[in-house]
Amino acid sequence: MALKKATDSTGLRPVEDRDYTRDTDGLVAQLNDADISVRRWAARDLAAHPRAAAALCARLAQESDASVRAVLFSSAARLGGSGVVNALLPLLRSEDAGLRNGAIEVLAGLPDAVTPHIDRLLKDTDSDVRIFAVNLLGNLQHAQVPQWLAQVLLHEPAVNVVGAALEVLAEVGTPETLPALRSAAQRFADDAYIGFAVDLAIVRIGAP
Amino acid sequence: MNRILVIDDAATVRMYHRKILGDAGWHTDEASNGVEALERIHAQDDDTAFDLFVVDINMPRMDGYSFVRELRRLPARHQAPVVMVSTEARAPDANAAFDAGANAYLVKPARPPELVLTAALMLGDRPAAMKAAIKAAAGVKP
Amino acid sequence: MNTGTKQGRVLAPPVISDVDFQKFAEFFHRKTGIHFEPSKRYFVDKRLVERIQATGAENFRAWFVALRFGTDGAELQQLVNVMTVNETYFFRESYQFDCMVNHMLGEVAARKRPGGRIRIWSIPSSTGEEPYSIAIYLLERWALIEKYEVEILSSDIDTQVLQAAQRGIYSARSVAQLPQPYLKKYFTPCGKSESESGGEWRISRELVESVAFSHINLTDPADTRRFRDIDIVFCRNLLIYFDDLSRRVAAEAMFDTMAPGGFICLGHSESMSRMSSLFTMRRFPDAMVYQRPL
Predict the structure, then answer these.
(1) Is ipTM over 0.90?
(2) Chain B: nearest CA to A5, how far in angstroms?
(3) Half-sphere exposure of A74 toward its Cβ, with a 13 Å CA cutoff?
(4) CA dist A166 → A131, A208, C111 (Å)
(5) B39 CB near a chain C CB, below 8 Å?
(6) Which residues in chain B are contacts of A202 at CB distance < 8 A?
């Protein structure tokens, strides 16, 4: 025994053609296979099949294994596009924290595809969805971002959504957001955290 | 010297909680999610082990509940009280926190005297608890 | 109205304020897990100024906005490169090799029949220091090396470093951490005599032949599919250079190459918490590593 002499095939399994049907429909069918590894490999390979975006996302709600779910999300993220965004947005409301957080992570990496939905998301009745939308603004390079954030600071009733906006502004705030920042501090004058976060954002913006 | 680990995915919130707890005289450290927190815990030796955890519920990778459940599976030397902090004021979330193994539950953003008082009570730090209780009482409007 | 020729303005080098440093440190930590304490100001500020000037940005703020919203991640990549120490050498971060021979291999071997095959994968191979360090550790410091058949695999995306690894010639600096007996045993000096200062060393053909090198792209499923039943993965100081999504994809790909119960070691400042929730953390006396659940 000891260290094996390396040969051409050491450790590397030769890939056989008949091992797998790597066409889109075949792979999508394998998303329902009884074997976790088969499902996970199918989910991984589907990252190269744009046609399968809908099927990938649809499988998420049914998939019980965490490792397969993780790969489904990764492949959805690699595919990107408005189809994926439309399929994942409803998951923001899911009772399942894993689905919710997984969707948030993927959507956060697709800021441009999510932009058309921002207005609507900022008005959602669920404050967690509004928080997600605010966090997304931090990753978005879009002319309207300062206005969106200002709107939150001026009008948003939920203190934690305002808190999220302040978190974003600590990193990407600009001088034009200063009046809205001061307004938020006044609206939540009783809240020590809001005061703290406003002060921090102002310092980070570097205003005199 | 009591050592507190603050766990939250928002940098500003971590800074805020650390400032409040630091001003109260305790040493603080931070982690941005449950997995990082577990790594921090494992990286300590007996001298530097944490005496209290202040944990946000909603975090990516591993949420607050999962972190507490994982924490409670670790050997005794890693155990310490857990204060869970959440945006949710609904009863089910408080119950879930206690079921997972937390010792206290606060709705965030926590008011400074409230956070300090809770931490002091969990740490068994009577002088700090007295000070915080007085401050909290002074804050109550008639 | 300006009538004179325009003089090139000589800009004073940008100054990094405390607030700038904080902003940068938070962002960088979020992206890479690397934490810069205020004590590292000199190190960091110098490199920030370098990047600001290299990109032609007017000041820190302008550079930071471009960094944060950069669509191709090129500046972040550059930034990670200058902020991390890229040097490779024999027995780098050897506490993980200690963990391998003292603990990980014990658990792995317990699941094998006598004479069974154990697979160790080192990625990136870079110029070979890591896989050869593993080989030396196994031969010199693992009590059970004769009882199992150990395969060492090593991969890189860069064919040039793979070639260098197979040539096996190293500088004095690269072998500086090796105990003298190992140096004498496994290397021959390339220069005229052993005492030639700054001379190079050639590693034994036997060690070169004990590592199976391969050219792969970690984010390509077709490449990683070929690896199976890996018992220990060393993937150190590679994933920090990836973007968030690629990091996830790579971690998930490595998961599938591993046998249940297999271990993976990352660089000392890296953490799975940023990449994937598929692995469990294992704390050993020598090191903290991650494990694919049994």
Answers:
(1) no
(2) 37
(3) 29
(4) 11, 19, 52
(5) yes
(6) none
Tens digit of pLDDT for each residue in C177-205? 999 999 999 999 987 555 554 689 999 99
Q: Is the bond preceding B109 in cis, omega lying within 30 degrees of 0?
A: yes
**Sheet architecture: strand order including B82-86:** B27-31, B3-7, B52-56, B82-86, B104-107
Residues of chain B with pLDDT under 70: 88-92, 139-142
**Has residue A153 been placed in a domain?**
yes
CA distance B74 to chain C (A): 11
pLDDT at residue C9 greater than cutoff 70:
no
- pLDDT at position A30, please? 94
Q: Does the domain made of C18-83 have the CATH classification 1.10.155?
A: yes
Is the predicted pLDDT of residue A208 greater than 70, yes or no?
Answer: no
Determine the 3-state secondary structure of C178 from DSSP: coil
pLDDT value at A5 more than 90 = no
Q: At residue A63, does pLDDT exceed 50?
A: yes
CA B108 to CA A193: how far, in whole Å?
A: 9
CA distance C100 to C137: 9
B87 contact partners, CB below 8 Å, separation of at least 6:
A127, A128, A160, B57, B58, B107, B108
Instruction: Check CB contact under 8 Å for A11 and C151.
Output: yes
A chain contacts of residue B110, beta-carbon cutoff 8 Å: 193
DSSP E strand boundaries for chain A = 2-3
* Segments forming the whole domain that contains residue A75: 20-109
Is any Cβ of chain A less than 8 angstroms from the Cβ of C54?
Answer: no
CB A167 to CB B16 under 8 A?
no
Residue of C nearest to A42 (CA): C221
| Residue B23 three-state SS | helix
* E strand or H helix that includes residue C188: strand C187-189
Every domain range in chain C assigned CATH 3.40.50.150: 95-291
Taking the C-alpha atoms of residue C275 and residue C256, their distance in angstroms, rounded to an integer, is 15
Domain B3-139 fold: Rossmann fold (3.40.50)
pLDDT at C5: 39
- In three-state secondary structure terms, A183 is helix
Half-sphere exposure of C17 (CA within 13 A, CB side): 10
Q: Kindly report the nearest CA distance between residue A127 and chain B, in angstroms.
A: 10
Q: Over the stretch C46-66, which tens digit does the pLDDT of each residue have?
A: 999 999 999 999 999 999 988
Residues forming a β-bridge with C211: C152
Which residues of C are less than 8 Å from A14 in CB distance? 226
Does C271 reach chain B within 8 Å, measured CB to CB? yes
Select C95-291's CATH number: 3.40.50.150, 1.10.490.10, 3.40.50.2300, 3.40.50.1010: 3.40.50.150
CA–CA distance, C289 with C80 (Å, rounded to integer): 23
Mean per-residue pLDDT, C101-122: 96
Q: Do C149 and A47 touch (CB under 8 A)?
A: no
